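Q: Okay, next protein. This is Limonene 1,2-monooxygenase from Kurthia zopfii. I've checked the sequence twice, so it should be correct. Can you predict the 3D structure?
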Amino acid sequence: MMKTKLSVLDLVAVGEGYTAKQAIENSVKLAQKVESLGYERYWFAEHHNSASIASSATTILIGRIAENTEKIRVGSGGIMLPNHKPLIVAEQFGTLETMYPDRIDLGVGRAPGTDGVTAQALGRNPFAPPSEFPDQIDEVLTYLGENLGAEVHAFPGENTNVPVYILGSSLYSAELAAQLGLPYAFASHFAPNYLEQALQIYHQRFQPSQYLAEPYTIACVNGMAADTDEEAEKMVTSLYQYFLGIVKGKPSKLKPPVDSMKDIWTMDERSAVMASMRYTFIGGPEKVEKQMKAFVEMTKVDEIMITSHIYDPEARQKSYEIIMSAFNK
């Protein structure tokens, strides 16, 4: 695991009894903590129309974190590109890169990050062909590069060469990232089924580009670490309840942990939740170390990105501390 990097994905989950402002401030404190621990990057995911998630204005959060940290890379995991005009994305991330040089990442995806009605409210075309996504990526890359001879330019943005990452949870995204010669991040924290196959396709079909000479892979997983296995098993019940709300079509704010889920979900609901959480590190230091080692040996990823739906902000910080300590062993 010595060559593998550790990073953070933050959805800015809003817990019961907390406000969105408090959730954002907790993210600032977490970013400062993980920077001191040696994490590589801190990404935000774009979501809309969810009272339980405060990461809808992703670029604003990136600026807030970059302003309150010194060296950790900060970016999007990701910007849902069909929700935005490529020129605007290039201008926003070009501005961030200008303000915080060599620290900004642009991860892009094609999912709506919300429900169908909200996607249309964002101006998304429900009948757009899949081919629009690679065209949008190419447009963003052009605006962020030299863009010679063009009538339209991104200022700031041009020649900033903000690194672009392809995000996905399918084989399509793996093929596209390989074809474009861009780094690839897989969302195995909620869509684990195609992880191994997607990574294999990406490596087999990767074409070197001006952006990347060799394949580079990131896998996002859930991480819940505590001093003991028992503490971690209780802590993860907040995540179970969060996923259960999604399964039932009734998402809610992040709930406090409970002693038992027995009376909260049915066996079928439990199966659905656990299927989405196949790649979740849960336990004390020794157990988490074994889980991470096995994951790296299986996937050979260059980077593991940890996301943690932990109700107590201090417990979340401690979880990332335990994970890094276990990782360094």
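A: Here is a summary of the prediction. The first strand starts at residue 5 and ends at 10. The mean pLDDT is 94.
Q: Noted. On to the next one.
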